[in-house]
Write a structure and sequence with these properties.
- With about 200 residues, the chain is mainly α.
- Helix content is about 80%, strand content about 0%.
- α3 crosses α4.
- The termini are far apart.
- About 25% of the residues are buried.
């Protein structure tokens, strides 16, 4: 097996598993279903991931690690809070468009049956890290006078809803464009309400 084929098979398994887990849940999805959909074999899946639960964890942790790394990088850039916020929301949107099934699986894990949440104990820690990065960026923007001196928690919830609502509409096949223009429009409205007056 060449290196290109090797990566391709692993990626196909991840992609098809994300779709099936998001559609049916962890317990109702078999390894055979995943490997057949990916054009692979059961031994290939076990070679790359070790077990079904490790595959499930890989889908979520790889996406979350990538997101956390990019969020940290974007928020650490020079520039105004609103400029960095546009980049941050645009990146969230690009990830969803690129991997919609992995995103649907995230929502299933956070909002779905308790037995699926228990499979990914580390997900809450990764989510908390993401929240801490955003809280720090908000507080710094408040110190620089870019945002109103109100509760950072309120602003963090407002931003979270502003990012998640369009994503949920997109995943529900509504006519929503997840792109930079949408991100810019959302940030402009956010800053008009939350930005420092004058």
């Amino acid at each position: 097996m060449s290196g290109v084929e090797d990566g391709s098979i692993r990626e196909r398994i991840l992609t098809e598993a994300a779709r099936l887990f998001a559609d049916k849940g962890y317990a109702a999805t078999s390894v055979r279903e995943i490997t057949q959909a990916a054009g692979a074999t059961n031994p290939m899946m076990y070679y790359y991931f070790g077990s079904k639960v490790e595959l499930y964890e890989a889908i979520l942790s790889e996406s979350m690690d990538r997101l956390s790394s990019q969020v940290s990088e974007i928020l650490g850039r020079p520039g105004t809070f609103s400029e960095r916020l546009v980049e941050l929301i645009t990146y969230h949107f690009e990830m969803v468009v690129e991997r919609p099934d992995a995103t649907r699986l995230f929502f299933r894990v956070f909002l779905g049956p308790d037995e699926e949440k228990q499979l990914i104990a580390s997900m809450r820690q990764m989510s908390d890290k993401h929240e801490c990065l955003m809280a720090q960026a908000i507080q710094e923007a408040q110190e620089r006078g870019e945002l109103r001196p109100c509760s950072w928690r309120t602003l963090e919830m407002l931003l979270g809803g502003m990012i998640m609502h369009p994503i949920l509409k997109y995943l529900d096949h509504e006519d929503v464009e997840l792109n930079r223009e949408t991100a810019e429009a959302l940030v402009e409205l956010f800053m008009a309400g939350a930005g420092r007056e004058g």
